[in-house]
Design goal:
There is one protein chain. By secondary structure, the protein is an alpha/beta fold. It has 13 helices and six strands. A six-stranded parallel beta sheet has the order 3-2-1-4-5-6, sandwiched between helices. Helix 10 links the parallel strand 5 and strand 6. Helix 2 packs across helix 12, helix 6 packs across helix 7 and helix 6 packs antiparallel against helix 8. The longest helix has 20 residues. The radius of gyration is 20 Å and the shape is globular. 50% of the residues are buried.
Length: 344
């Protein structure tokens, strides 16, 4: 699927925004990262008065074939479907934080190993009932991978057409830290053993087993390109996030990137279209040990570090008020001239 993503380059606007920021009633640079965010969103929206409209988090859920064996995950695969019901019933952390911060929440069945029938509130984008076990064969076919990317893009296009201009992504899928570790190693060239963490709570001995198993998987395949790697190692929910990120950038939306899994998906999008990074704000540093290494690889500093490693898009929801604050100061804070305050 082709995406046309324009690099953010408007020197006159950039200069005007920076002048506006610097002329607020404060010392130059005194609002730190808020000033960087305000400038970035102004550039994304091509205006000196940016706005955040109908902010939305989309949580993509999918199962992973390797999780059926239980060798790398302390929770059974059935928890993926159970958590989807929890999202739909409003009981998960992401529900709490979205409600607190007036963020719309969408839940997507990307490929859960469960038949939800026509349960209310769930977006049915199921590719299959979970991926294949990549210990034995690629996680998905190239056709399935492309279909997942297209469906992720279509879901973003729909919320954009409904008025949303700011989107973040979350995920749910038992075993998906393993897929993310494999993708991280492929795109960053960091040895797989250094990409593997505790996931949903493995102890040190179990982490060693996970490292060994994933090292064998990584060595088993030689993907021909980035999307081929996504098909070999990824999950349906991860592939949909890749498509969602790319489409959001093509639509000039502000994109808020969550933790380890979503950032691994971002790597696939970045590999295909490097300019996508201009549209992204990195919400937080996950407690999953590979995440900081990806952020270092990308030379990106996230907004917060609270030691969170839950997923679901919770880092996005918690960081969102900081992004709101950046837009608020840019649009409503007095300038030295309007306030009659001397800046010399």
């Amino acid at each position: 699927m082709d995406f046309t993503i324009q690099p953010i380059a408007n020197k006159p606007l950039e200069k005007a925004l920076q002048l506006k920021i610097d002329n607020k009633t404060k010392p130059v640079g005194a609002l730190g990262a808020l000033e960087t965010i305000a400038l970035q969103i102004g550039m994304i929206q091509n205006t000196e008065r940016p706005s955040l409209i109908d902010p939305t988090i989309i949580v993509f859920a999918g199962d992973h074939g390797i999780a059926k064996k239980g060798e790398i995950n302390p929770f059974p695969q059935e928890v993926t479907a159970q958590m989807v019901y929890n999202f739909l019933n409003g009981g998960a952390a992401i529900n709490v934080f979205c409600k607190q911060n007036a963020i719309a929440l969408k839940i997507v069945d990307a490929g859960v190993n469960h038949d939800f029938n026509t349960v209310s509130g769930l977006i049915d984008a199921k590719i299959a009932y979970g991926t294949q076990n990549y210990q034995e064969k690629p996680a998905m076919s190239m056709e399935q991978c492309n279909e997942a990317v297209k469906k992720g893009a279509a879901i973003v296009n729909e919320i954009y057409n409904d008025g949303c201009n700011c989107v973040g992504f979350g995920e749910m899928g038992i075993g998906n830290t393993s897929a993310a570790s494999l993708l991280m190693s492929y795109y960053t060239k960091i040895p797989i053993e250094e990409c593997v963490g505790s996931g949903t709570g493995l102890d040190s001995e179990a982490i060693k087993i996970k490292q060994h198993l994933l090292s064998e998987v990584f060595d088993k395949y030689t993907p021909s390109n980035g999307f081929d790697a996504l098909a070999h190692y990824g999950g349906f929910e991860i592939a949909m996030i890749v498509g969602a990120i790319l489409k959001a950038a093509a639509l000039k939306m502000t994109i808020i990137i969550d933790g380890f899994i979503v950032t691994a998906a971002f790597l696939a999008a970045y590999d295909a279209h490097p300019q996508v990074i201009d549209y992204c704000i990195f919400a937080h540093t996950s407690g999953e040990q590979g995440h900081q290494k990806i952020l270092d690889f990308l030379h990106k500093k996230p907004l917060i570090n609270l030691g969170m490693r839950l997923g679901e898009g919770t880092g996005v929801a918690i960081a969102y008020p900081i992004i709101e604050a950046a837009i608020a100061f840019l649009n409503t804070m007095a300038s030295f001239e309007s306030a009659g305050v001397s800046n010399t």
